[in-house]
Amino acid sequence: MHRATFALGGMLLLAAAGVDAATAAYPTRPIRLIIPFVPGGPSDIIGRMTAQKLGESLGQQVVPDNRGSAGGVVGFELGAKAAPDGYTLTLAGGGGLTQNPGLYLKLPYDPLRDYQPISQLTAGPNVMVVHPSVAAKSVQEFVALAKAKPGQINFASAGTGNRLASELFRVTAGINIVNVPYKGTGQAITELVGGQVQMMMMNMIAAISQVKTGKLRALAVTTLTRNPILPDTPTVAESGFPGFEVTSWHSVVAPANTPRPIVTRLHAELVGMLAKPDVKERLQTQGLTPVGSDPEALRARIKDEMVKYAKLIKEVGIKPE
Predict the structure, then answer these.
(1) In terms of DSSP bridges, do strands 88-93 and 217-221 run parallel, antiparallel, or are they unpaired?
(2) In the chain, how many domains are there?
C-alpha cells in the first residue's frame, strides 16, 4: 500500500508540474531525425554525426531519415506534420526555414508556426568555387570573364542556400550567369567537377576536399572574415564587394507543441554534444563553428532571416514557384 501511495504521489507531482509520465521518461524508444536532403551532402554529414552523438547521450538510437526533394520541402513538411512527442526531429538548414518561404507560393509548412526551434548547431561560409578550366583565378577575373561572356557561364545550385548566395553575387557584381539546379549537392559537385557547369557557391564541408585535391579552384569565401581552413582564400567582401556576406548554418527543430521538458532535454544534450572535443574538432576541421544557441535565439534568427531573404528574393528577381 505504501509503495502504491508513493507511486501515485509521484504521478500527481508530475501532473502538477505539467509533465506526464511519458514525457518524464523520455526517450523510451528510437527517435527519427529527418534530413531533408539526399545522402552525401553537407546536411547529411552534419545530420548523421548529430544522430550518432545524440543517440549516445540519450541512450536511444537516433535514426537518420533522408527525405530529399524540392529544395528540402518534402522533408520539412514531413517533419512539421509529425506528432509533437519528441520522437521526430528535423535537421534544418537555414535555407529551408528562412529562404523557402520566399521561394514557394504555397509552402506546405510555416517555419514559425509549425516548428519548435531547439538549437542552432553550426555556422560557416559558402565557398565560391570554379572548375579549373575557367580562366579566372580571382573574383575580379571571374567577373570580368562573365561580363565578356554574358549568359554563357552557368552556376550550380542544390537547395536554396547556395542558389541565393550565387544570385546575390550575380546581382551585386552586375553579371549575367545562369542557374542550373540539382536535386542534391552530390550531383551538383559531380557535374561541376566534370565541367558541365562552371561555378558554385558551395558549403564549406563539401568544398574542402575538392579544393584540396585541385578538382575545383576556390576564389573566395562568403563570410566577412577568412576561414582558417582556407587561410589563403580571400573573402568576397575583400575582393571588391564590401559588405557581401552569406552564412550557412544548420539546426535541430521539432514539431510545434512539443512538450517543453522534452525541448529542454534535447537542447541540453545538443549543447553538450557540441562541447565534446571530438565533435568540436570534427566541425572545426571542416571550417564550421559550433554554436549551441537556445530555442529563443534560434527562433529570433529564423524570424529575422525570413524577412531578410524575402527582400533579397524580390531584389534579385526570383519569381516564387
Answers:
(1) unpaired
(2) 2
Specify the residue for cell string 512539443.
258
Tell me if 163 sits within 8 A of 286, measured CB to CB: no
For 85-114, write each residue's pLDDT tens digit: 999 999 998 889 999 999 888 999 999 999
Contacts of 190 (CB under 8 A, 6+ apart): none
The residue to which cell 562568403 is assigned:
222
Which SS3 state, helix, strand or coil, does residue 212 take?
helix
169/235 same-domain check: yes
Q: Which three cell numbers stand for residue 168?
A: 546575390
Query: How far apart, in Å, are the Cα atoms of 249 and each of 91, 138, 280, 292?
Result: 11, 25, 15, 11
Same domain membership, residue 106 and residue 60: yes
Q: Which of 203, 218, 239 is the last residue of a domain?
A: 239
Cα separation, 246 vs 236, whole angstroms: 10
For residues 113 and 291, the answer to whether their CB atoms sit within 8 Å is no
Classify each residue of 203-231 as buried b or exposed e, where b means 16 or more C-beta atoms within 10 Å of its C-beta.
Answer: bbbbbbebbeeeebbbbbbbbeebbebbe
Indicate the DSSP class of residue 224.
S
Domain boundary among 195, 217, 239: 239
Q: Which residues pair with 65 in a beta bridge?
A: 34
> Which set of grid coordinates corresponds to residue 65?
531519415
Is the separation of the CB atoms in 121 and 270 below 8 Å? yes
Do 227 and 293 have their domain in common?
no
pLDDT digits (tens, 9 = 90+) for 153-172: 999 988 777 788 999 999 99
- Model-level pTM greater than 0.85? no
Q: Where are the alpha helices (DSSP H) in 194-293?
A: 204-212, 260-275, 277-284
25: CATH: 3.40.190.150
Q: Which domain holds residue 142?
A: 125-239
